[in-house]
Every structure is written in C-alpha cells, then in structure tokens.
Amino acid sequence: MVKVALDALGGDFAPDVVIEGAVNAVNKNENLHVVLCGPEAEVKAKLEKLGYAGKGISVVDAPDPVAMDEHPVEVLKKKPHSGLVTCVALQKKGMVDASVSAGNSGAMMASCLMLLGRTTDKFSRPPIGCVIPTADRPIILVDAGANVDERAATLVDFAIAGSAFAETYFGYEKPKVGLLNMGEEEHKGPAVLQEAHQLLKSAPVNFIGNIEGETLIEGVADVVVTSGFTGNVVLKMLEGFYELHKKMFGVIDTPNGRRFDEMWDYRMTGGALLLGLNGTGIIAHGRSDALAIEKAVEVAAKYAEKGVSKNVNERLLAIKDEPSEAK
Predict the structure, then answer these.
(1) Is the dihedral of CA 75, 81, 87, 88 positive or negative?
(2) Rounded CA gap, 158 and 286, in Å?
(3) What is the dihedral of CA 197, 201, 204, 208, to 10 degrees?
(4) How many C-beta neighbours within 10 Å does residue 177 have?
(5) For residues 36, 40, 45 and 48, what is the CA-based torsion angle, rounded to 10 degrees?
(6) Is the separation of the CB atoms in 304 and 296 below 8 Å?
C-alpha cells in the first residue's frame, strides 16, 4: 500500500477539485491510500457529498489556509497546521510515502527543504524538475520555478540533478544536457549563462551546448537547464499553447490528434518533482482540475513505489563525485 499525503486546500479551485481528484485516484488503484490534509469537518462533508465511504482515503485535520502570495518561510513558521506543511510533516514522520500540493509552490519547496532535508550539502539549491513533451519523447526541464537568481555553479547542479532523473527514471543512457539560451553560440546571453556554459563543458554531464526555444520542443536535449524564472515562463507558455490549440481546434479525433492531446495536455504530467531532497514532493498545477489532481496523486504514488527520489539521489551523488572530465 502506497500512501500519499494531499493538501486539500492547495490550488485555485480547492478543496472541491482536490477531493474529487483524490476520490478518482483511489477508485482506480486499490493499492493507493490518500491522506487528505485540510479542515477535517469540511473535507469529510465534501467526501460525503461525493458519496465516498471507502477506506482508501483518510483525513488529517489541518485547518490553516495558505495563500498563493504568502512568503514561503513564514508559512513554515507560522502555519504548521496548514495542509501543505502537514503533508510534508507526515512524510518526515514516515506516515506517508509522498506529498502533493497544488498550492503555494515556494512554501512547498521550503517545507520539503526544511523538513525532509537536501540530499547533500554539495548540492546548492534543489530545483523543480518538470517532465515536458517533445517531438519524440519526454524530457526534463530544470528549474521550473523554485529559484530565480541562480549562479552559474547552481545551473551546473541543476544539470546534474536533471541528468540523474533522466538516467534513473527515463532510462536514458548519457542523457544530453542543453543550456537554454537566446542563441547556440557559447558567448550569447547574460554573463551568468556564458559562465555556466564554460562550467558545463567540463562538468560530469553529457553537455551538448546551448539550445534555443524551438529546439527545446524538438527534443535535441534530454535535460534542459535554465533559471527558475525562465523555466517557469517556458512551462506556462507551453500550457497556454495547449489551451489555445484546444480553443481553436477542439478535439481532433484522429490518431495524430489523439496523440497530440495525450502529449501536450499538461494535466496528464502529474505535476513537477522536487529534486535533490530526501523525499518525494510533488507540486501540482495551481489551476488544477480534478483530473490534474488525480494524475498528480498517481505520479506521486508511482515515484514513491519505484523509489524514484532515492534512485535520483543516489545517482546525483555518484555524478557529483565523478571526475570533471567524465562524460
């Protein structure tokens, strides 16, 4: 039995869609148990309204709401009984295997960092790793929004974390690492990207150089490294592209149309994984509907069951200790 803690008040449309998503997830997987963390009476009332009386969901009272604009550290200090912090605290105690929130992503990162701890002190800042589609196969984008003022050395750490994920989860051998920039030339872009390019050339990853926006979705790199600011903009642009496509063309009921929908519907990715931490923390989309929550819970359970965070951390440490000339 895999247990996933879910922040019942996380996201723009919580708690209704969160609770509905949890019910859908456990109804499809008898090996899954969801612990809903939120105002106990309200959560139980909504479960009753949905007609759910099974044993696949339990409720932990966590009455404090967390606004999307609250400072992450203040949430951790002043709202320990929020659903978001309670989820991570349960994981720290070993009572659940993974934590999911569609709420304040900064607070989720801070909670996981402070309560679960980072994999190693050699790793500067844990990034958000987000799986995105390309023309041929899925890749991972790091960072997707946890950090906004990275140094060049931090971007190298992101490359290592992304490579560890691509190897252990995707099974890609010597995953290709690309640095997202405004041009392929190594002297293009801000000074921090130029410095990162030089550091990546001698880092223990398979660095293929700078890549641009259009080559990102062509899949020329298995790991796309960027600042959290840029990564978050790219991620939301891709989501907006999918929404625009749906508005313009609707459902295209052809093999390619169904494949496109399956690839680009951001709800199906199940959220983003916090990398470089001693546990499984998933950030779901803030505007999540019930399907997105259901998928986030499913992905969290799969990551926990397969030991993805543990495997990534072990590989991350191994890469970090490799000599710089290793590729």
Answers:
(1) positive
(2) 23
(3) 80
(4) 26
(5) 50
(6) no
Q: Mention every residue, 6+ apart, whose C-beta is less than 8 A from residue 292.
A: 21, 102, 266, 267, 270, 271, 284, 285
Let me know: does 87 contact 61? Beta carbons within 8 Å. no
How far is it, in rounded angstroms, from Cα 102 to Cα 44? 20
Q: What gap in Å lies between CA 135 and CA 54, rounded to an integer? A: 41
β-pairing, 272-274 with 281-283?
A: antiparallel
Whole-number Å distance between alpha carbons of 78 and 269: 32
Least Cα distance to 308 among 90, 161, 188, 104 occurs for: 161
Quote the DSSP letter at residue 292.
H
Determine the Cα–Cα distance for residues 177 and 159; give it in Å rounded to an integer: 7
What pTM was estimated for this model as a whole?
0.92
Q: What is the mean pLDDT of the chain?
A: 92
Distances (CA, A) of 259 to 31, 171, 185, 251, 296: 29, 22, 34, 11, 20
The Cβ of residue 16 has, within 10 Å, a number of other Cβ atoms equal to: 15
Alpha carbon of 324 to those of 158, 162, 172, 305: distances in Å?
16, 17, 20, 33
Tokens 């392929």 label which residue? Answer: 184
Terminal C-alpha separation, the chain? 39
Q: Which of 38, 81, 80, 78 is nearest to 60 (CA)?
A: 38
Residue 313 — pLDDT band, cuts 50, 70, 90?
Answer: confident
φ, ψ at 165 (rounded to 5°): -65, -45
**273: its two tokens:** 């994984």
Beta bridge partners of 272: 283
Cβ count near 94 (within 10 Å): 8
Q: What confidence tens digit (pLDDT) does each residue in 37-68 have? A: 999 999 999 999 999 989 999 999 999 999 88
Helix/strand/coil for 265? coil
